[in-house]
Amino acid sequence: MKRIYTLIITTLIATVAFAQSKNPTNKKEVDDKIKQAQQQLDKLTPEQRKMLEQMGMSTKVPSMPTGVADADVKGAVSGGSAFGVPSRNAALIGAIPQITLTAVTVPTYLKSLGDYVEKSIANDAKLFAQQVYTSFKSNKYDAATIGNAAVGYWSTGQLEIAVYLMNKACADNSADADMLSNFAAMLSMGGAPHRAIPLLDYLSKQYPDNTTIMNNLGQAWFYLGETEKANVQLEKVVKAFAYHPQANFTQCLIQQSKGNTPKAIEKMKNSLAYSFSLDKINMLRKLGYKIKASDMRKPFRPDPNPLGLRNFVRPDVPTSYEDEIRLKVDWDAFQKQVGDKSMALAKEMIPYQQAAAAKAAQVYKKLDNKSAEEINAMRANAVMPDNLYRIVGEKNLEEMNKDGGVGYRLKKAKAQIDSLIKDFMAKDEAQRKTLEKQNSIIADKETELAKKGENIGYDNCKVQQKYSEWVYKNYNKPLEAAYQNYLHQAYLKITEELYWEQFTMDDAAFEAEKIAAKKEWLAALGNTRYMATNKYGNNCIPPQNNGSRYKLADFDDMHCTHISTLDFGAYKQIVECGKMRIEFDAGKLKGSFDFKSDNAGKDKFIKGTLEATVIDKSVGKGPLEASAKAGMGMEFTSHGVEDVYVNGEASVANVSASGRMSLISGNMSGGISGFGK
Question: Where does the signal sequence lie (predicted)?
């Protein structure tokens, strides 16, 4: 029974976790989640229901069996021993087939594994998998394509279908090392690590330094409770690739079991640095470590010029009184155009402000007359933006205004400007009086206007020149340097905010934020004018009546250009700046829908990493030869797909991988209830 209710709760977590809601902690909350999950499934269109059914997915959430206690729920939600080290499983260790595989004997062993798989998986899954395999074969799909489709089923939680298809693909081409490695990983994570070890031993002799095989072998021994044997393999992996996501995760558990918390934290931080998951964040919190934004990588390379901010160029900056008179017309034009554009943006913002006000009124209406306890419960179950990188984005935004952060540096830059202006205002009048006195004209003879020796004023142009020189030397020159620093810090602050806010806001809110960012940039530009020194009239330099040719630049639009595609044959998983969708193309099964909000009810509870070679790159035989740093990959856990990343030569905006795919075992076993016997 424990296995049944664990699967039910896990299904619920996968169904509602994409909304980042609170996991249930007792039976009543589970019943509530069951109702919520079924309500989500009931909203699917007939076409979407048909898609799910054709993929072997139920549109009915199972009910809780009788006799389940609150303690059982807590254990299932926490993953039982998800953060512990399994005990040594003497029965399964003793059941490891005593066979040394060769290229000749691999097909026979695969046949025995096929019998084991067919005997172990549920009949409905086996029937569906047989139909899928038959369809693939009748449509002339090769073994590698069927293997990729199997990995796709695995990554979306359809474990029994996946392992059946992978066994068939391996039987069709037993020489394909990538598929053998993937099959072994599925056996281990499915609950049969003892049957995976002969395959992994065979592959490790062919690829002795391959991190994927070493990791998968280490994870298999870990599942069996042989932590020392596991750590030998995992240590080889991290020596080859220090930030290997799965090897470091499992080593963290081993170190924690030994009481070495500092080392456990170090290992989990290394795992998190390469790919993100909530389990890693939660594990570090349990270990007493407070996550920093720098612990998590940027999901993809930021746009070097978002909204075209760098397109805006200020007029030439004067360095003397003569320049000031000549350039005044351009600065006047610049500031007028900045003001006009800011007004236009303010009008553009109005519909978004009205929509936000209406939304706020709805929230207020919901919260009105509610108790603090009820409000906290509503917050806990609130639906958040469905972006893979929301938590990473929130953490980085939180740290922007801390000491040393870009928001903090912008404030310091503005304070430097304010200090210069304040100093100028304090000394300006006294300096002008001093210059006027120093350059005063004394009457050399008596006239109707003055007596001999009397001060009759000063030379305007001479004072003007001296005054301008004083202002430019002591204020305008250092002020321009301060302005340059201020604009640089403003640019960094605006661009960094935009980068992280795209992961934390819905589309409408982000559109409004882009308008606000434009206004902020214009305000920063418009407030960087030199201090005018023309205080003594315009007669000292001949007037220039030339009109200004200055024209303010236009903003660029900001669209997502970072698209990652994993092509599994029957369908594609597409991630655009953290937002995921699935596109189907398998005979009559065609279409697309949002992965997180519509693909509800899937059983996603296996931890692992998937990596694949990029379609237009040649990387030997596949990820086994490319090792742990293949073209692109994704991290998937009980919360679904949590990270999609590219690396190496694939670090570009648009990446499509449909070549070889490599399944890297995670630290969990027992995904298939019939395995482990």
Answer: 1-19
CB-based contact 388:575 (threshold 8 Å): yes
Mean pLDDT value across residues 182-210: 92
CA distance 491 to 407: 11
Using CA atoms of 319, 320, 326, 327 in order, give the dihedral in degrees to the nearest 10.
30
Q: Which pLDDT does position 9 carry in this prediction?
A: 35
Question: Could you give the dihedral angle defined by the CA atoms of residues 319, 320, 324 and 330, in that order, rounded to the nearest 10 degrees?
Answer: -30
Residue 637: phi and psi, rounded to 5, are -140, -165
- The pLDDT score that the predictor gives to residue 543 is 67
Which element (helix H / strand E) includes 441?
strand 440-442
Helix axes 406-438, 460-471, angle to 10 degrees: 150
- Residues 213-262 have pLDDT tens digits of 999 999 999 999 999 999 999 999 999 989 888 899 999 999 999 999 99
Residue 632 identity: M
Return the number of other C-beta atoms located less than 10 Å from residue 224's C-beta.
25
Q: How many whole angstroms separate alpha carbon 147 and alpha carbon 659?
A: 11
What span, in angstroms and rounded, lies between the C-alpha atoms of 299 and 276? 9
Residue 267 has which token pair?
């290992």
Q: How far apart are CA 179 and CA 624, in angstroms?
A: 10
Place of tokens 């806990």: 380
- Give the H or E element holding residue 167: helix 159-172
**Is 200 exposed, middle or buried, given 0-12, 13-18 or 19+ CB atoms closer than 10 A?**
buried
In 492-639, the DSSP E strands lie at 563-567, 571-576, 579-586, 589-594, 608-612, 632-637
* Cβ-defined contacts of 262-265 (< 8 Å, 24+): 265/289
